[in-house]
Write a structure and sequence with these properties.
The protein has 431 residues and is an alpha+beta fold. It has 14 helices and 18 strands. Helix content is 33%, strand content 17%. Strand 4 and strand 5 form a beta hairpin. The longest helix is centred in the C-terminal third of the chain and has 18 residues, at 403-420.
Length: 431
């Protein structure tokens, strides 16, 4: 090594210069560029092919970890510190379960459901983390409709801050351009429940569906076109009476949040959650046009651990820096199946899917769910968060193995490990 020089993360300098540089780094951080994204140059498909289910398996994987190349996206900036996620001393082991009369293992679930990333957190510690198909901890993977649960949470934050005047506030109070449309008389609560009454066909594989029409407008990159589409919908039912899953509804909700806060969703998410809670990496969010509006129902790309941290944030009732930034009882309300005005159960909360299997019902678990196998599953009783990345071939909601059954098995395995207790071997705690 040359005398009088030291090597730093920002290059070489003299010893005196290095001292000045260290002070500068402490004040402003190193000016060097972050490491390039390792998957940025891979060949990818198109959004149309993604929703049509025509991507080859390898191209699908490449596309799902590069969705910011499909559309203009806004960065969700991380802060200067990361919420610690230490690995637990006792890992999750030996997952076995039965589904539709057949026995399965963890490896079979990973293969059959095309899982490319699996994270299991318990009590704030990682008990399992694995990646497939070349993914790593740096992979930014698509959210699909997991983004709806994020948009719903931002609406909750805006209500707590008084920017949205409660669940019964009307959509047209924030989006007056929707007066005289199917959304006139619809409340924020109706939007969150996917019960506006607007007529909508969500079939992703049907080129004539409303969902594909929304996608085509996104591909056209015309500012505000999505809201124009929503303004042309017909009313099929009175608001609050029928649950009808509708990605456009999440777009309307996102537009309400933006109008109420005066901020893009990505910026609002960064300021309220991503930075203060301690996400470790920047994420991105699709826009309807260059420097336009976020796609409220899809298009977030983030790392496996940061999706896990979002699950922890929500499970902890939105606790940031010692206080909740969500309204009282928001998490319980948002994750409870809603009763419609006609007395029927929706099986859906405020853009969160509610418990449906024996184990999940027992613990009042809930999930953010996206097409092609994306999940953030939360069991508040056992303090478990499970995240999956997946690259299923077609957007049909036809998992080879119901992931909720697998999640039940994970929680049950952790319970059994608790009952057996750790075995100390050669100074380490192991099972």
């Amino acid at each position: 090594m040359l005398q009088g020089f030291v090597r730093t993360g920002c290059g070489q300098s003299s010893v005196r210069g290095a001292l000045l540089l260290a002070i500068a780094i402490g004040l402003w951080g190193c000016a060097s560029k972050p490491a390039p994204y390792p998957f940025a140059n891979q060949p990818i498909g198109t959004a149309e092919e993604m929703y049509a289910g025509t991507l080859s398996p390898d191209i699908a994987v490449n596309t799902y970890r590069n969705i910011d190349r499909l559309f203009p996206s806004r960065v969700i900036k991380a802060g200067g510190h990361a919420q610690p996620l230490p690995h637990a001393e006792t890992p999750l082991t030996d997952i076995k379960f039965t589904y539709q009369g057949r026995a399965y293992s963890l490896a079979e679930f990973l293969a059959l459901d095309s899982i490319t990333g699996l994270l299991v957190i318990r009590d704030g510690e990682i008990v399992h983390e694995s990646y497939q198909r070349g993914n790593t901890a740096q992979t930014r993977w698509m959210s699909m409709s997991v983004a709806k649960s994020v948009t719903s949470t931002l609406a909750g934050i805006a209500i707590q801050e008084g920017r949205i005047k409660g669940l019964d506030a009307e959509v047209v109070d924030y989006l007056p351009q929707l007066k005289g449309t199917a959304y006139d008389g619809v409340s924020v609560r109706n939007l969150l429940m996917m019960a506006s009454g607007a007529q909508w066909n969500e079939t992703a594989t049907d080129p004539t569906s409303d969902r594909r029409a929304l996608l085509r407008l996104q591909m056209a990159q015309q500012p505000g076109a999505a809201l124009v589409l929503m303004s042309h919908l017909q009313r099929a039912n009175p608001p609050g009476t029928v649950f009808n899953y509708n990605t456009g509804e999440a777009q309307v909700l996102g537009e309400v949040v933006r109008a109420a806060t005066g901020k893009p969703l990505a910026q609002y998410l960064a300021e309220k959650v991503w930075q203060p809670y301690g996400m470790e990496a920047d994420a991105t969010w699709w826009l309807d046009s260059p420097d336009g509006t976020e796609i409220g129902g899809s298009g977030i790309a983030a790392t496996l651990r940061d999706y896990g941290r979002f699950g922890m944030f929500f499970m902890d009732n939105g606790l940031v820096e010692g206080r909740s930034i969500l309204p009282p009882h928001w998490v319980a309300d948002a994750t409870t199946s809603k009763t419609l005005a006609n007395g029927k159960e929706a099986g859906y909360g405020y853009m969160w899917w509610t418990a449906s299997t024996k184990g999940s019902l027992q613990d009042h678990a809930y999930a953010a769910v996206g097409l092609l196998g994306q999940n953030i599953y939360i069991d508040p009783v056992q303090k478990v968060v499970i995240v999956t990345f997946a690259a299923q071939p077609r957007p049909l909601n036809k998992d080879a193995i119901n992931p909720m059954v697998f999640f039940d098995a994970v929680v049950d395995t952790l319970r059994k490990q608790d009952a057996v207790g750790p075995v100390v071997t050669a100074g380490r705690s192991r099972l």
